[in-house]
Amino acid sequence: MRILVAQINPTVGDLAGNAEKIVAAIKRGKSEDADLVLFPEMALSGYPPDDLLLMPSFITDVEQALRTITPHTFGITAVVGLPRHNPGIKEKAIFNSAAVIRDGGIVKFHDKILLPTYDVFDERRFFEPGSQVTTFTHNGQKIGITICEDIWQHSDTLRFTSYYRDPVQELAEHQPDLVLNLSSSPYSFEKPYRRLKICGKAAETLRCPLVLCNQVGGDDSLIFDGYSFYVDVTGELLAHAKGFEEDWMVVDTEQHTQPVPFHDDSIGDLYRALVLGLKDYMHKQGFRQACLGLSGGIDSAVTACLAVEALGAENVLGVSMPSRYSSEHSQTDAAALAKNLGIRYITIPIESAFTALNDLLQPHFENKPPNVTEENLQSRIRGMILMSLSNKLGHIVLSTGNKSESAMGYTTLYGDMAGGLAVISDVTKMQIYALARYINRNEEIIPENTIAKPPSAELRPNQLDSDTLPEYSILDAVLQDYVELHLDAEHIAKRQKIDIKLVKELIRKIHCNEFKRRQAPPTLRVSEKSLTRGRSFPIVQKWVK
Amino acid sequence: MRILVAQINPTVGDLAGNAEKIVAAIKRGKSEDADLVLFPEMALSGYPPDDLLLMPSFITDVEQALRTITPHTFGITAVVGLPRHNPGIKEKAIFNSAAVIRDGGIVKFHDKILLPTYDVFDERRFFEPGSQVTTFTHNGQKIGITICEDIWQHSDTLRFTSYYRDPVQELAEHQPDLVLNLSSSPYSFEKPYRRLKICGKAAETLRCPLVLCNQVGGDDSLIFDGYSFYVDVTGELLAHAKGFEEDWMVVDTEQHTQPVPFHDDSIGDLYRALVLGLKDYMHKQGFRQACLGLSGGIDSAVTACLAVEALGAENVLGVSMPSRYSSEHSQTDAAALAKNLGIRYITIPIESAFTALNDLLQPHFENKPPNVTEENLQSRIRGMILMSLSNKLGHIVLSTGNKSESAMGYTTLYGDMAGGLAVISDVTKMQIYALARYINRNEEIIPENTIAKPPSAELRPNQLDSDTLPEYSILDAVLQDYVELHLDAEHIAKRQKIDIKLVKELIRKIHCNEFKRRQAPPTLRVSEKSLTRGRSFPIVQKWVK
């Protein structure tokens, strides 16, 4: 059996465009002499469409779009993911389905059984769970269909949930010859390795090969990495599609194939994920150009490099906005970076605006001494300048804060937080350093001084991040334990061998700054648990532990 | 049987404080000679705790707090809502439960069966559904327990969901003498009437009286109205607690009671909801003072009145920030309002800051003509001034945009949208007028000119809202049909008898401005469907219909 795995990059809601991609892949399947073309979960609608799914006319339009695909399936089978009306509503009006299409008609639907409702997933909000596992016959072979989460319960590695049922076990009883999985499984750091393991585990139990087709592309905060897999009955990897780009591969289950290794490049994957997420966020909205503040620091440097890779140097504008507290090197480092990247670079000193605003405000400050207010003011003037350039020139502003400072609230609302996309706000400071080294792996793009100097916001004389924050290696470890693993302070202090008072203070800061993050631009989600997308803590609450 | 209905206002995560309120109510129950004290859903943790529920140590702490309550139940029964560990996990680690406590021990738990997962609710994210209906016996009487949504499926009025089961029907088979309902049912416009009907319907089927205790208070965006009910077997209202404040009432099921009417005051309820939401958002976080921009327009006027009612005039600062485009009346109207309210009032003209920033920016504007950039700049300078006052003086900034303009994106990100709380961003412009009349019902607090003049943002010469928007009565009707009822353009045009092109243009604007709303401050949710809390549309998507 020859299967074309069509790892496409659909756009949410672009039904005509997605249908076109699907038809093109079916045609390619024919020219490749494939028996079957496999698509990702919800390929036709894009995933996740969120509350579009609640609009009855959206579902009707998806079904209409499906009718434009079926005529292309004469002589070939296509398995296409889409949301569909639930004809016998018990709980919700729609299913998350896979349509098996052949010879111009729909042979069968499989409705997703396990509906993830944790972290970034809220499928119980929209879908009714499918009631049974599904197989169909093709040239005498029995083929099972699963959708994404359907195969995850079996691995027993889910951390935030569990299910009553295990479709892999149920399907195994049907003794399939092959199982397909339609996925829209978002990237997080090192997730592709985990997904491969899950596939292997399922194949072993099913006692047959498994072919998984994963969506690729960015949709708002989520990034889908692709890396579609073909594993044999022992769970060995026989083939995989590329990561972070559209790709297709032909799997022939009757041909003997040697196992292939899966690459080991976590930081490279993180880099490619961010580039793809940034590119698709911009291009899928029709934006070509971006601007960002260049402070001479490592965060804005890494963000600029990602932007250049995603959009091209000609579409990136770097803006230096020095104040009275900016060091000499903040401007020389920023300028050197801009030169290395070949981007446009302008300088707008903020002193006159700061003075004008300060003069307006001082009479109303009740003679209180300078504090964070004046620091925020500088940051907000910069945010306002970038937003004005954006409004006038049609750029999207990229904000440059990282996850570690976002967790601590070491950011200014409407200041450095301003922008259309928070490119690295789910990347910890230690990962930022790793990315900088990755970017410089062949030549110095980010000036060495930017990487080497101690981090500073430069909002008051001689300010350093380390004045108020612990070392980033410690901070990041606490973040991981608290935010991703949900451990409590005592446990974290023990595990990381640090003072429990420090741990508690860091946790307190995470909670206290929820109000800022609530107003943050969308982040590119690249960790197991971002601080914004898929995490939802109350602002008004008193439990901190 | 005498029941004390303890309509308390818990704070999310304030386990000690909530336990104290619960113990105080039990003591009051004893002094009132009650057999039973009934509390709201999740009274001990506060509702909704969101992802606090995912922290195992939070659940442990809740159970610890429960142990501080049990010793107070000698001689009395308390039915207390709380999250609890699920001892036999199939899906999720916790239940949403009601503990029946008596004589120092836990008699029984009821675990909520129907878990709302739509609109603002995401209970399947956290909880495993309870498996069975629960009754317990008290002085020979069989008492059924239900938690909030458990009684809603029966009414067949749920719009976004449905359930496999109907606990009311299941409970009816047990022939209870009385059924209790613990609720944390959030307010939306005219929701109390709906909730009363649902109670009546359930009581009729159960063939017994029903006592519902609803949480009161604001938690982030959600406002709980209280209005606990006691209905008889025919569904008639026999008693209700107050709306929008802590209250308690004693229900004696053996005493003959005459039906009472339920008041008819939708706009008064809306007003009280906003006041409570604002007060609790501030006070539960420890803030006493607020500041806001006073433009002389109706939105900021209504917001100021709500703030004064919630916080006291001495805690509200009104700031007039005139620009070159501000009309004479914008300042006289704002000053008159401030005088009527007795609040502090300052004027900070923004001209010098506007000039300074404009001078910095113009050289980089590539000779493009003035456009929305300069309008946004004025708005952002005002946002920055308010945030600086907030930072220096410890205020929370209240933003003053309404739902109609938020839907249209007729707002400036980091400008008039800036603030800690968007007080009226779920209130349509037509409702704003109704609130203004309500506020002025006894005397002129909001200057008549503020109400009568045509709305304008005053960001360019002679600007009026009606330059770019249709009449608000039309806009609001489309909003309701599209956002609340999920109708499509064709249906709306027909229903409202307006041009379909206009409807489509308005719908397009709703979608296009999703990116702004994503960064809006928390709203006070007072409609069936707010634009932010409980509504989740992708930013990057192409379907508009």
Model description:
Two copies of one chain form a homodimer. Chain A is built from 16 helices and 21 strands. Chain A folds into three domains: 2-255, 4-Layer Sandwich (Nitrilase/N-carbamoyl-D-aminoacid amidohydrolase), CATH 3.60.110.10; 271-467 and 513-517, Rossmann fold (3-Layer(aba) Sandwich), CATH 3.40.50; 470-512. In chain A, strand 4 (94-102) and strand 5 (105-111) form a beta hairpin. In chain A, strands 5-4-3-2-1-16 form a six-stranded mixed beta sheet, with helices on one face. A six-stranded mixed beta sheet of chain A has the order 8-9-10-11-14-15. In chain A, strands 19-18-17-20-21 form a five-stranded parallel beta sheet, sandwiched between helices. The termini of chain A are far apart. In chain A, helix 8 (351-361) packs across helix 9 (372-393). Chain A has 545 residues and is α/β, with parallel strands linked by helices.
Could you write a compact summary of the structure shown?
2 copies of one chain form a homodimer. With 545 residues, the first copy, chain A, is α/β, with parallel strands linked by helices. Chain A has helices spanning 15-31, 56-69, 167-172, 191-206, 266-283, 298-311, 328-341, 351-361, 372-393, 403-408, 429-439, 448-452, 472-484, 489-496, 500-512, 514-517, and strands at residues 2-7, 36-38, 77-85, 94-102, 105-111, 117-118, 121-122, 134-138, 141-147, 178-183, 210-214, 216-219, 222-225, 229-231, 237-240, 247-252, 290-293, 316-320, 344-347, 396-399, 421-422.
